[in-house]
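Bumping my old thread because nobody answered last time. Still need a sequence for this structure:
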């Protein structure tokens, strides 16, 4: 960094809070792109309506729609589904897709309780061409609130290179709210679906990303897992495999069947977490979380995982798959969140879009 570099959230004592902290609201985008659920789009708005019904009992819900007519149609579905309409806020901001975990803002908060947002570049997981409307979402939110907005860049000192705007999706990281972050090498360091090719080698990219996490999210320690789960269109998002459920407690997905392609990568991640130490030099409490049996549709393995749960005020929403492991996963999460109601949401249709509950939501801290 140079003296001319703008101040970052860390300079101003901002940090990304944990998801279980109090929320002002949840942000989602209403489903509209039938190509994201080919041949199976019809039930998706009703799945969303059920999710919003639960969220609107405990917090405000901001819903992005492509235009006012789409907002009226969504409102009618939500009314019929029994959502608390007084807590719903529609915004006519067109999107390419609905995965706001990745395209939406990542909020940060300081000790005084002030909130700002970080606006990372979004490029559709370095895979799809249509992302430019999604990339505008964080700026729309900042303008809506008149909120301070940080656009993460890497400044290369001693060179004449232009600052590099950093690509990052919210689903690729998870934090305990106390300076520790989880991510994967497969997502952020691989040359496949490479988000930030301008940052150099894998080791150089690792250094640059850890520096960006420190400057923009207040992170002091990054825990690198290796690979994500089978069927993951994002190439390794951490929110399908490992999540913080307390400052020193991590749930991590495991697959005991040696015949399943998830077995080895998840076992390696479990080993890495059990070998890791926190900022005080002590081990983390690591809790295994089962995977559902493989979910396959039209011959394609889908990224079905209980780790894609969403923590709201007083509630935890958990994807379920009509699977014998559903009950075990719900019980584990109920033990982790004894003061919250843990609710299963059937995600068998939703996961055909290659994401579920955490992928579609973005929390705004109170």
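Sorry it took so long. Here it is:
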């Amino acid at each position: 960094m140079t003296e001319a570099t703008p101040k970052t959230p860390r300079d101003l004592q901002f940090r990304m809070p944990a998801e279980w902290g109090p929320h002002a609201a949840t942000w989602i985008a209403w489903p509209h792109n039938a190509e994201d659920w080919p041949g199976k789009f019809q039930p998706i708005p009703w799945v969303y309506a059920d999710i919003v019904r639960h969220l609107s009992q405990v917090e405000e819900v901001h819903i992005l729609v492509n235009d006012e007519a789409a907002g009226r149609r969504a409102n009618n579905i939500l009314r019929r589904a029994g959502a608390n309409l007084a807590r719903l806020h529609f915004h006519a901001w067109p999107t390419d897709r609905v995965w706001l975990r990745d395209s939406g803002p990542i909020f940060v908060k300081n000790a005084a309780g002030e909130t700002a947002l970080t606006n990372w570049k979004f490029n559709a997981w370095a895979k799809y061409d249509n992302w430019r409307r999604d990339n505008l979402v964080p700026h729309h939110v900042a303008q809506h609130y008149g909120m301070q907005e940080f656009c993460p860049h890497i400044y290369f000192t001693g060179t004449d290179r232009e600052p590099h705007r950093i690509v990052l999706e919210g689903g690729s990281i998870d934090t305990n709210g106390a300076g520790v972050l989880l991510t994967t090498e497969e997502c952020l360091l691989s040359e496949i679906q490479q988000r930030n090719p301008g940052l150099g080698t894998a080791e150089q990219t690792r250094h640059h990303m850890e520096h960006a996490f420190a400057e923009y999210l207040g992170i002091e320690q990054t825990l690198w897992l290796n690979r994500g789960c089978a069927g993951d269109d994002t190439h390794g998002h951490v929110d399908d495999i490992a999540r913080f459920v307390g400052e020193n407690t991590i749930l991590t997905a495991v697959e005991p069947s040696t015949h399943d392609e998830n077995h080895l990568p998840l076992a390696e991640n479990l080993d890495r977490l059990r070998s890791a130490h926190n900022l005080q030099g002590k081990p983390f409490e690591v809790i295994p979380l089962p995977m559902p049996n493989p979910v396959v549709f039209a011959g394609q393995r889908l990224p079905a995982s209980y780790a894609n749960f969403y923590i709201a005020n007083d509630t935890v929403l958990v994807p379920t798959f009509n699977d014998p492991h559903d009950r075990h996963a719900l019980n584990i999460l109920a033990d982790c969140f004894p003061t919250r109601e843990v609710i299963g949401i059937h995600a068998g249709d939703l996961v055909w879009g290659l994401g579920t509950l955490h992928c579609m939501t973005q929390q705004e801290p109170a």
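The chain has a mean pLDDT of 96. Let me know if any region looks off to you.
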